[in-house]
Amino acid sequence: MKITEQEIIDECRAICGDAHVETGNDIDPKYQRDWLDKYPSSPFIVVRPDSTEKVAALMKLCTATKTAVIPLGGNSGLTGATQAHPDQKAVIMSLERMNMIRDVNGDGRYMIAESGCIVENLHKAADQAGWMFPLVFGAKGTAHIGGALGTNAGGLNVVRYGNARALCLGLEVVTAAGDIMNLLPALKKDNTGYDLVNLMIGSEGTLGIITAATLTLVPKPAAYATAMVVVPDIKAALKLMNLVQNQTGGRLEAYELMDQVIYDLCVTNLDHVTAPFDYSPAFSILMEIAAGSPDDVKTHSDGRLNLATQLETILAMAFEQGLADDAIIANSEAQRQNLWAMREGALGAIQKHGNWVMSDVSFQVADLPNAIEDLKAAFAAVAPGPFCVAFGHMGDGNLHAFARPYDEDPKDHPTEAAAIKAALRDTVVKWHGSISAEHGIGQDKQAEMKQLKDPVAYAMMKSIKAALDPDNILNPGKVLL
Amino acid sequence: MKITEQEIIDECRAICGDAHVETGNDIDPKYQRDWLDKYPSSPFIVVRPDSTEKVAALMKLCTATKTAVIPLGGNSGLTGATQAHPDQKAVIMSLERMNMIRDVNGDGRYMIAESGCIVENLHKAADQAGWMFPLVFGAKGTAHIGGALGTNAGGLNVVRYGNARALCLGLEVVTAAGDIMNLLPALKKDNTGYDLVNLMIGSEGTLGIITAATLTLVPKPAAYATAMVVVPDIKAALKLMNLVQNQTGGRLEAYELMDQVIYDLCVTNLDHVTAPFDYSPAFSILMEIAAGSPDDVKTHSDGRLNLATQLETILAMAFEQGLADDAIIANSEAQRQNLWAMREGALGAIQKHGNWVMSDVSFQVADLPNAIEDLKAAFAAVAPGPFCVAFGHMGDGNLHAFARPYDEDPKDHPTEAAAIKAALRDTVVKWHGSISAEHGIGQDKQAEMKQLKDPVAYAMMKSIKAALDPDNILNPGKVLL
């Protein structure tokens, strides 16, 4: 089948309507950039289908004409996974108009959302139904659920609820050939063949186009108890986490590690934050537990929740066992918000100080004490300067480690910046960690993944890609090299 | 490469040692049958490697000679997934000697177990480390973890901890070509490419041979509170489940539905069980919640646990909301064991009555009230007789529904038995359920799956199988047709 570019454009218009196809100079600039302004995008066509059937028709067209297709969600990804290379003639398929919540089923505790739904809108819909959709991360007001599933997004409470994968019961997917695969039913047990749902999740649009998802709703905690706890070291932090998990039956909602550098940066650079302690702890933990019984939400005569008393009891155990040196429990919602403001403001506090070498790596949780020591030593050897595990999602072994060569801009020290990145990679390799914990591969980490991934696994991924997308039209040039 | 049968046998002996290769008439009868004595097995060779390297060497041999390989665990599967067809020259690769627990890491809350480890031994190892490995099902004393992962086994507390898939952090797999893929690190966040671990889980040995797994350990509940609750109908049972989940922050460990038929059968046929009620409830629920705080395990002056009081409070809400008509809370471990003896004896109680048409299906949880009504009506229309949802893992939407045509042996009424099975299948189709909730496909449900699975998904599974096992030597003739 031979077809001209104009014929492809005309066919896209026939499928989606003129108003939803942009080409050439008419393409909105928002489709020509990424969140970090790092990966410019030069699509040949931008098309906005509003139904699964239209997505399927477009894929049939692209398969017939061997045209590359890049699915696009909220464009909040950090790895250049949804941009068109200047040298490829690619269609960007924006799913923004597929933004219907098809069903919210309270009894069954699930909802079915189209891939263009903004994550925060799903939070609201779940809340209205009396439940919670617990996938929460920084870009929640922009990111689409389709993109969150495509990259298997993580976030702030993975320690309790898992990442995007764990919250997805089923998918509707359009294949490279333009066929619609319906695996939407919210079945908690279904052993009929291979797990195609999890194969699609995290594949960054290279194996199929997610058009809708069935998502799990969880009980909405009636209350939280929150504390900032000073720990003697990271090993103690680990043991404290296990103590809390054990004592609460797994009701730990967040467990975020802060070191002295980030503590000081927050206290100094965030005007709206009140310092929790009158000194700078070497390591502190922001922890939060959720109510787990009707008793937990009863209040004492002094207005405090039973849940807070419970946390106090657990922290008393921690003091006794030498796992905590100091602690402050939030006694009001305002105090709780102050502790969270530190955590949520951390990135801003860091950036106010200047530019850093940033990262998104993970380790086995039990390896964190050693891995962090190694990172610190390696960075100091390369170019002494501040190093911090700015927000360590400790429950998941996920660190966003930051470093600044000689406390100066990495751009002014490219050799040292590269050496810091190499040291980071070496430490990940040494401890069998991951070079991409929650942001995915995109274009950013393709070469590194090819180099570091188990070679048998890499070859298997290539085989699967070739089998499911033989013409390599689904987001080509991403993830795999 | 041409090679004689004798040369294959010799090579197996060279790899594993003479003592661990059986052929022809020397093959132990245990390798020639299945759990249900339904699928006879005629392997050409039985081989018992004791290391991943030996598994890899054997796979290289089998790939070079295009010899079929059937991985075998504890042989407790119910679908004929691990038997050799009489017309195929297959090697049965028993993993029974790969039974080392390589590591138990309490701090990191994981263990690494070889695939031949018996599930119950993993329970013990986890317990000794102060944690729990919560994959519990009837065959736990026989089944291997490799088989449990190969079939994505479920069980009694999936409502709390998920099925085998949810408890596996990583795998070591030998591919068709005999390469070793190491995805063992216990990473909670790792977004480097496609999810090969979940692809292998549930693939019943058709995509690779699982040789070891990294398994999650969870907090061990310090106490349980258990009740048998009479509910007005299944809709109320569903709402009650959600109420308990909400009030306990998800600490529901089991929620098992019993109808009047199975209640009566248990009370009549199980001598060691004391009837919880002095009448036969139409629908009752065995529910159990776990301790979630240090307070929960404190005892009142009458010796009762706080946790039991908490359950009482929740049940009081249920009575008020019309979700419960009657209830008995276990006030001692003996009373708790009596309630569980009913549940655990249910299959025996049914079988004591005679033969039934059995099933393993699942529905969306919210569809259970309607689906059960449909099943009841359909069975009554075909051949009136007792019908029961003997043990409904209600939290997972998983029903083991049983029926007896005219209250007689299905073997004596083959037409009606077939019609009952057809009605079951039609009901599953109508409600978008699954024909295999937790037992897998094997040989038993191949044709049915091919007929009922989403055709795009079926074709995708075939593509993946062809890509990963191009010579079709990994458990051929199972799962896919």
TrEMBL record, chains A, B:
<dbReference type="InterPro" id="IPR016166">
    <property type="entry name" value="FAD-bd_PCMH"/>
</dbReference>
<dbReference type="InterPro" id="IPR016164">
    <property type="entry name" value="FAD-linked_Oxase-like_C"/>
</dbReference>
<comment type="similarity">
    <text>Belongs to the FAD-binding oxidoreductase/transferase type 4 family.</text>
</comment>
<dbReference type="GO" id="GO:0022904">
    <property type="term" value="P:respiratory electron transport chain"/>
</dbReference>
<dbReference type="GO" id="GO:0071949">
    <property type="term" value="F:FAD binding"/>
</dbReference>
<protein>
    <submittedName>
        <fullName>FAD linked oxidase-like protein</fullName>
        <ecNumber>1.1.2.4</ecNumber>
    </submittedName>
</protein>
<feature type="domain" description="FAD-binding PCMH-type">
    <location>
        <begin position="39"/>
        <end position="220"/>
    </location>
</feature>
<keyword id="KW-0285">Flavoprotein</keyword>
<keyword id="KW-0274">FAD</keyword>
<dbReference type="InterPro" id="IPR016167">
    <property type="entry name" value="FAD-bd_PCMH_sub1"/>
</dbReference>
<dbReference type="InterPro" id="IPR016169">
    <property type="entry name" value="FAD-bd_PCMH_sub2"/>
</dbReference>
<dbReference type="InterPro" id="IPR016171">
    <property type="entry name" value="Vanillyl_alc_oxidase_C-sub2"/>
</dbReference>
<dbReference type="Pfam" id="PF01565">
    <property type="entry name" value="FAD_binding_4"/>
</dbReference>
<dbReference type="InterPro" id="IPR006094">
    <property type="entry name" value="Oxid_FAD_bind_N"/>
</dbReference>
<dbReference type="InterPro" id="IPR036318">
    <property type="entry name" value="FAD-bd_PCMH-like_sf"/>
</dbReference>
<dbReference type="InterPro" id="IPR004113">
    <property type="entry name" value="FAD-bd_oxidored_4_C"/>
</dbReference>
<dbReference type="InterPro" id="IPR051264">
    <property type="entry name" value="FAD-oxidored/transferase_4"/>
</dbReference>
<dbReference type="GO" id="GO:0004458">
    <property type="term" value="F:D-lactate dehydrogenase (cytochrome) activity"/>
</dbReference>
<dbReference type="Pfam" id="PF02913">
    <property type="entry name" value="FAD-oxidase_C"/>
</dbReference>
<keyword id="KW-0560">Oxidoreductase</keyword>
